[in-house]
């Protein structure tokens, strides 16, 4: 069965001032699949990820060409409201960054300011359950989120993104600051989330990409070297550089 | 494993630095203690309700600081009303909204320069703009506006530093759940920066409460036998009254000045207590 393309990245270039960080990348993101973006440090994978929900807008001197479409929404159109984009494309960052507020408020703030309808308690519980955090925190929802462990904080950040019920969730090396046990929990979580969400994950960790993703994109110095089903990319890469990278010969 | 080199000597140096820091701290504390002690010894005998509740007089036993205390409270309240909102919002603009570039940089440098300008210059500016041009005369309003100009750079610089110390990951987290710039600033950045902003506000208000030169420049009176009843009334302030008493030949007036200093310190302490109270509530 052919998967539906939900995010269409078409010939995208991203510059920081004069530096070309992403070069002519064309890439489909398939609905309800996990797409991993891998590549050596500085290859532009985080830059590409942040451009998908216009988080690069906050970086002074960052500019782009090309097009990204989410369904019928043109993400790069200056008339498109970035707030609207971020309601449909959520994000989880490299380091857990909960708000210095209660666990409950962390989840509820986004839906509150965007005036999402429905019972807030149910929304918070649902998000925490989906992020596999509910049982650990259900008795202390009013405690500060900063008292949670690093792994719990990152699952809280995932729950915070889930509570917005986005179509796509971007994850920028979500496990790089976590221990192996927390990492394993989040990887398990990704499998369940893909039933309802589309996930794009940037990772340094090739085993992680191989374990969790259905599609893999390999970037080097801003260029898309190879894109395909994860199994093919890892076991039968078409490009020599990809093979060298996935077998650990450089990077 | 080889033996660490010079370990005894290194520890000795570490200890020496620690003692040096203690000595320097002690110096500051001792100097403050001497100041407070001297003022107390001379001033406390004069400190009673009669002193608080009387107007200045040429008889020391009848003289009081009622008008100066009222003038300072008026001045400080009005100054806080003008300077805090303007200063904090200017800092929010410069840190959160202004695009980085030459213009923003120029503005920032100039604000830093303004903080170093002698207060008498602000007095001249206040005299020209508020007293003459806007014809506010020698009113407490003209004084408060002049004071506001004087302390604005301090508030802006401290608030900017406090805003800059808020980690950008917090802003990104808020933007990522679909917040507008205002919602991010209002709900996350300002609360996180509040303790630092309040520290700056305390410093600025402490400076305003002790300033004398610009007030003399704009024509605040030294002998005032009434309490200002509105922002357009003439006024005097504690430091002016203290300065006036110290410049008299009679010994009794010098003691009255000490009593005035104690009152000034009391007002300052109360002001700081309020700020600390707000800060603790905000960070809890």
What does this structure look like?
The complex is a heterodimer of chains A (251) and B (284). By secondary structure, chain A is of the alpha/beta class. Chain A has a single domain (5-246), classed as P-loop containing nucleotide triphosphate hydrolases (Rossmann fold, 3-Layer(aba) Sandwich), CATH 3.40.50.300. Chain A is 35% helix and 27% strand. Chain A has 10 helices and 10 strands. In chain A, the strands form 2 sheets. A 6-stranded mixed sheet of chain A has the order 6-7-8-3-9-10, with helices on both faces. A 4-stranded antiparallel sheet of chain A has the order 2-1-4-5, with helices on one face. In chain A, α3 (103-113) packs parallel to α6. The mean pLDDT of chain A is 91. Chain B contains 11 helices and no strands. Chain B has helices at 7-43, 49-52, 66-97, 102-114, 119-133, 140-164, 168-176, 181-210, 213-217, 238-246, 251-283. Chain B starts with 6 loop residues before the first helix and ends with a helix. Chain B folds into 2 domains: 7-46; 51-283, MetI-like (MetI-like fold, Orthogonal Bundle). Chain B has 284 residues and is mainly α. In chain B, 36% of the residues are buried. Chain B is globular.
């Amino acid at each position: 069965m052919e998967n539906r393309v939900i995010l269409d990245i078409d010939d995208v270039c991203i510059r920081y001032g004069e530096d070309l960080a992403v070069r002519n990348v064309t890439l489909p993101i398939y609905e309800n699949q996990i797409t991993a973006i891998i590549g050596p440090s500085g290859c532009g994978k985080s830059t590409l990820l942040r451009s998908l929900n216009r988080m690069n807008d906050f970086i002074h001197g960052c500019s782009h060409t090309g097009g990204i479409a989410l369904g019928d929404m043109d993400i790069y159109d200056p008339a498109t409201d970035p707030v609207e984009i971020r309601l449909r494309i959520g994000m989880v960052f490299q380091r857990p960054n909960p708000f210095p507020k209660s666990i409950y408020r962390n989840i509820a703030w986004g839906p509150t300011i965007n005036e999402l309808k429905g019972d807030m308690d149910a929304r918070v519980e649902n998000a925490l359950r989906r992020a596999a955090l509910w049982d650990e925190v259900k008795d202390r929802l009013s405690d500060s989120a900063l008292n949670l462990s690093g792994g719990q904080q990152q699952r809280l950040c995932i729950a915070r993104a889930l509570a917005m019920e986005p179509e796509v969730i971007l994850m920028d090396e979500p496990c790089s600051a976590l221990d192996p046990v927390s990492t394993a929990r989040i990887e398990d979580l990704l499998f369940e989330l893909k039933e309802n969400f589309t996930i794009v994950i940037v990772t340094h960790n090739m085993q992680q990409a191989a374990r969790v993703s259905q599609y893999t994109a390999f970037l080097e110095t801003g260029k898309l070297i190879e894109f395909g089903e994860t199994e093919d990319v890892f076991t039968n890469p078409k490009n020599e550089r990809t093979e060298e990278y996935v077998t650990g010969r450089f990077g | 494993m080889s033996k660490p080199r010079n370990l005894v000597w290194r520890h000795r140096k570490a200890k020496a630095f620690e003692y040096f820091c203690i000595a320097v701290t002690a110096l500051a504390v001792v100097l403050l203690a001497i100041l407070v002690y001297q003022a107390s010894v001379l001033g406390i005998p004069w400190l009673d309700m009669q002193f608080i509740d009387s107007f200045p007089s040429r008889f020391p036993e009848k003289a009081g600081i009622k008008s100066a205390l009222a003038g300072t409270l008026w001045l400080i309240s009005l100054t806080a009303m003008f300077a805090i909102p303007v200063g904090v919002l200017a800092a929010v603009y410069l840190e959160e909204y202004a695009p980085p570039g030459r213009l923003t940089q120029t503005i920032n440098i100039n604000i830093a320069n303004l903080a170093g300008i002698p207060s008498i210059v602000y007095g001249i500016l206040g005299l020209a703009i508020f007293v003459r041009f806007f014809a506010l005369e020698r009113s407490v309003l003209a004084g408060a506006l002049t004071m506001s100009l004087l302390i604005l750079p301090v508030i802006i610089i401290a608030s900017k530093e406090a805003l800059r110390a808020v980690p950008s990951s917090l802003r990104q987290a808020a933007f990522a759940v679909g917040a507008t710039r205002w919602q991010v600033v209002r709900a996350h950045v300002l609360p996180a920066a509040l303790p630092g902003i309040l520290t700056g506000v305390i410093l600025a208000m402490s400076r305003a409460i002790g300033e004398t030169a610009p007030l003399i420049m704009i024509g605040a009176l030294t002998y005032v036998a009434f309490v200002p009843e509105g922002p357009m009334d003439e006024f005097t302030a504690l430091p002016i009254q203290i300065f006036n008493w110290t410049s008299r030949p009679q010994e009794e007036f010098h003691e009255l000045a000490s009593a005035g200093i104690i009152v000034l310190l009391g007002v300052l302490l109360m002001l700081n207590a309020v700020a600390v109270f707000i800060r603790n509530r905000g960070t809890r």
